[in-house]
Amino acid sequence: MSEAASNAIVIAIDGPSGSGKGTIARNVADSLGFHLLDSGAFYRLVVLSADRQGEREADELTLAGIAAELDVRFGADSTGNEQVWLDGEEVSSLLRTEECGLLASRVAVLPAVREALMPLQKSFRQLPGLVADGRDMGTTVFPDASLKVYLTASSEERAKRRHKQLNDKGLDVSLAALSRDIEDRDRRDSERLVAPLLPAEDARLLDSSNLTIDEVIRMVLGWVQEIEIRQEGQ
Asked: Which fold would CATH assign to domain 3-223?
């Protein structure tokens, strides 16, 4: 990474599953013309790559080796929806299944896998800036981020949002089961020994339970403007 890239501004948006951080991060990045890092996709990619290599039940070190060798590329389609390529194949839909997400949350607690993915995540820090979404962007990966946002919502609201997303895709799933999965994932993320899910000490807390997507985006962009004004005055 060049010296200029290492000084590129980073906006870290962390939070639990279903909080809407991916949607918010993508819209904020588009508004600012910044690069986007969807860190959660990396753990899903590890799961998918391991499965394709016949290593679905692999141990931690084997999974870490797979993580270190990921051939991944991110982009967007003509409507702005995120696209992810693994080994040259577009795999976005495969990454967004409930099964892949559940398996990824189990892989994400493995210290060796997290360590193996760190250089790849940091490489996304490029000019003019980066919006990074995940669970430890502001605490572990980019502790020097200019703005740290911890985005959350009640587990009930997050389950409802996910239920609607899946129903819109024609998938019939139980709201109660989704709610249990979210609570289980929250517990695993918050109790893991390495990079547990928690707000950075200097993060701005934002509960989106009763806010629209546009309202959340405006709040985050307003905080970015505050930072820019403060930096110009220094």
From this structure: Rossmann fold (3.40.50)
